[in-house]
Amino acid sequence: MKMEKVEIGHGSGGKLTRELIEEVFLKYFNFPELHTLQDATYLPGISRIAVTTDSYVVRPLFFPGGDIGKLSISGTVNDLTVSGALPRYITAGFIVEEGLPIETLERIVSSMAETAKTAGVKIVAGDTKVVEKGKCDGIYINTAGVGEVVRELSPKLIKPGDSVIVTGFVGDHGVAISLAREEFDVETPVESDCAPLNSLLTPLFKLPGLRFMRDPTRGGLATVLVELSDSSGFGVRVYEDRVPVREEVRFICDMLGYDPLYLANEGKAVIVVSPEDTDEALEILHSNPLGKDASVIGEVVSDPGVTLVTSIGGVRRLELLEEDPLPRIC
Amino acid sequence: MKMEKVEIGHGSGGKLTRELIEEVFLKYFNFPELHTLQDATYLPGISRIAVTTDSYVVRPLFFPGGDIGKLSISGTVNDLTVSGALPRYITAGFIVEEGLPIETLERIVSSMAETAKTAGVKIVAGDTKVVEKGKCDGIYINTAGVGEVVRELSPKLIKPGDSVIVTGFVGDHGVAISLAREEFDVETPVESDCAPLNSLLTPLFKLPGLRFMRDPTRGGLATVLVELSDSSGFGVRVYEDRVPVREEVRFICDMLGYDPLYLANEGKAVIVVSPEDTDEALEILHSNPLGKDASVIGEVVSDPGVTLVTSIGGVRRLELLEEDPLPRIC
């Protein structure tokens, strides 16, 4: 079916997003990152530099565990880090709605500054535009990041037998946002995992067997694995009962009809590492509070596609998301 | 008066914008570019690299002489160029309104690609978010740019006696947007000057007497000169009848109550150059169609402040814009 209009699902990070990218953007642009499936682009002419960009339109602006400011810094820091770069500099573009209380803007900006400090990155350039009431949802933020490349990671490096690690519980961000939007009787027991991951992940750069990393944001863990399979030519086998999901998240997903494997995370990474370096990778991850629940959830296999071995021993194939379960998640 | 809410004028590029930057952003961030009055930031740790960012929220999306796509590439190319850098790489973040015709998106994206090609820059990373109907005006675009620094230019380098050059007619973009918004009986005779200026300006990098360049976008020529005075400690004297303004622009400004000195330009630069290098600068500029109307409009003087010598010989002091004459100009 020919696309005629932009739909909410085009922002899902799933199948529709890929279609939009392939049918519109790739026709005119040639983003290297689209071909290499990295979250940041290595600049060929400027040695050791990677760049990335992301816009943030999350609703609500403040949620348990974070806010749009913390998210906008964490997301860009994480995109650089999973690309094997040390995040260094960030630019920030603000689109602000007329009437936004200055106090709200200030909370967001101070949260960005604090997160940047935690991550050790400098916010070096900015821009502010104001639009009329109703023409945005309080504030949209774009961040772009510049990092110094230490390791060039790529889906092309993975091999059958490699371990697939996730650094902790999945689905927290998605559920936290969902609960923050709705009036539920639950006393919001889930916080977003929103956090800059460079302190957790950069120590892995020294492992010779480190192949690929990615942060499973929009589209969740499943989407990262499907894209990894699509661009490597190999497959992934994942064991459902090894994927860390909080009891509360599982409960709320059952209630709302979400699949935690497709929910966004903002403080997690998927890591592919050689069998030889798996133990050391886990040791490094477990030594940091952000990675204390890191687990090997599966392995790379030679047949393409992503297979989920369910807890009752069944087998399910994971595909790209068809619809966006939760728009405006980041 | 204490600011309580964000107002349209906070996006004007004038006095309110400066207040917002000083009272909110500078409290938490330390953008070097805010202190040095450059449009891009030199990255101290990474040699020879400059970065910049801008968001584009122009209304309407298409206007005589350009569109939001062309604008978003030209603006970032120009910010890097006037900072003495060769523009190299651009990232693009799209916030798209649900329901935007794909054909419209495609026109914009292809215009970006074409402008990038003209300017010799590569669009290397991108991101797309979709918001619900009514939550943006079709599309907002953020671009961030990375350039290689050739000349470090700064207001601190200017000296009394230096020439102040503008590269062509001022006010075209502002008037073109204004006409595109309203139903006038005039047959839109003014096109936006929107264009990437690197082919025009980078040949000036070789002049030892080149001190400072800036593109007079939001806030116009007057704002650039006031900020130049504020951050250099010297003043500028400008001669009204030397500032190139098209007859049609002057006519429409009179009709609508605009001052062309405060209207946005998207394809012009203000240049400060030593007296010794002024002739060569003009020669270089005149040899490019984008600079054929370049003129010396005034000079740097020792007393701070910006003085306009009017065509009838009077003297008027130029200040920062108080209100935004034309919101959403870029």
Number of domains of chain A: 2
Radius of gyration of chain A in whole Å, from Cα?
A: 19 Å
Biggest interface found: A-B, 79 and 80 residues
**How many β strands of chain A by DSSP?**
14
Distance between the termini of chain A: 28 Å
Structural class of chain A comes to alpha+beta
Oligomer: homodimer
Principal-axis shape of chain A equals globular
Work out the helicity level of chain A: 25-40%
Supply the CATH architecture of the largest domain in chain A. Answer: Alpha-Beta Complex
Mean pLDDT over all positions of chain A? 91
Low-confidence stretches of chain A: none
Biggest sheet descriptor of chain A = 7 strands, mixed
Number of helices of chain A: 9
Q: How would you name the CATH homologous superfamily of the largest domain in chain A?
A: PurM-like C-terminal domain
Strand order of the largest sheet of chain A: 9-11-8-12-10-13-14
Percent range for β-strand residues of chain A: 15-25%
Give short descriptive properties of this protein.
five-stranded mixed β-sheet, 330 residues, 30% helix, homodimer, 9 helices, alpha+beta, Phosphoribosyl-aminoimidazole Synthetase, Chain A, domain 2, seven-stranded mixed β-sheet, 60s Ribosomal Protein L30, Chain: A
Descriptive overview:
With 330 residues, chain A is α+β, with helices and mostly antiparallel strands. Chain A folds into 2 domains: 8-149, 60s Ribosomal Protein L30, Chain: A (2-Layer Sandwich); 155-318, Phosphoribosyl-aminoimidazole Synthetase, Chain A, domain 2, CATH 3.90.650.10. Helix content of chain A is 30%, strand content 25%. Chain A has helices spanning 15-28, 32-36, 68-82, 102-119, 172-181, 198-201, 220-232, 247-256, 278-286; strands at 41-42, 49-56, 62-63, 66-67, 85-97, 122-131, 139-149, 163-166, 210-214, 235-239, 270-273, 295-301, 305-309, 315-318. In chain A, strands 9-11-8-12-10-13-14 form a 7-stranded mixed beta sheet, with helices on both faces. In chain A, strands 1-2-7-5-6 form a 5-stranded mixed beta sheet, covered by helices on one side. The longest helix of chain A is centred in the middle third of the chain and has 18 residues, at 102-119. Chain A is globular, with a radius of gyration of 19 Å. The first copy, chain A, starts with 14 loop residues before the first helix and ends in a 12-residue tail after the last strand. The model of chain A has no long low-confidence stretch (mean pLDDT 91). Chains A and B meet through α1, α2, β2, β5 and α4 of A and α1, α2, β2, β5 and α4 of B.
